[in-house]
Write the structure tokens for this entry.
Amino acid sequence: MEKLLDVEHVSISFIQYTKGLNQRNLQIITDLTLDVSEGEILAVLGSSGSGKSLLAHAILGILPENASLNGKIKYKGKELSQKDKEEIRGKDIALIPQSVNFLNPLMKISSQAIGNTKSDEEKKAKKIEQRKIFEHYNLGPEVDDMYPFQLSGGMARRVLISTALLSNPKLVVADEPTPGLDENTVKETLNHFKHMKEAGVGVLLITHDIHAALEIADRIGIFYSGYVIEIAEKKDFSGDGENLLHPYTKSLYKALPANGFNLTKGHQPLHGEILKGCPYYDRCEIRMDICGEKRPELIDFENKKVRCFKYEDG
């Protein structure tokens, strides 16, 4: 499988004003590394409000003006500049946004799905393709002349997915696509991502829903306090979690109701709270002295990736 996306040591920070005109640089994402191949679903799993959605915005080049981005984002081996991102977004790389509010409330569905066209011939061709994809997602012709407020939650989600696929993208970035949906609509939405995978599309699923991640992902990246601390295969989330490496990943798995609902005391540090050392230090049962003084790197260990000093000696 061809590797589509490489995110290498990416960090994202914001300049904030505190009292008066004092400035501070608030680090939200620190040293984030992951990759997605064609025909693969990689889920980035993290708590709500942790900043993981910024990854989607960084890939598409739609970060706010006060954001600072460091590190490399590559598509098919080429490092992307801001201009590159603007040229390929909505084409090679498509975004399925978090909220249905991304739909323009004043435009009919067909018009905003097709977008701007240069000629009547182009508009006609796009209309034919739009109708074909909409039919695939059970959106009949009547949907074309509807406004967003006339759609059910499930229909709106299908419109967002169909619109993203209209450009025949190679990579789809899905940012929290399931919150607020009923169980049947969630299942339907996840099935759509499975179909994308079967068609050879790479999917980056950004979510806080561990059940959704375990349902469809091939690999799962665990996001904690601005870091990916482990990238594990779906099969590793089984048994007693003995194949998982990082203590936080294990605690997350054991906290599931099916696994005894065993909770770990403490909370995930907020942005700006981590002064030095491992972000999981205060909650870790296997911490060492070095963990409080130095931040571990994301390393390869037995064909997996983990950020923990326990595995640095192999």
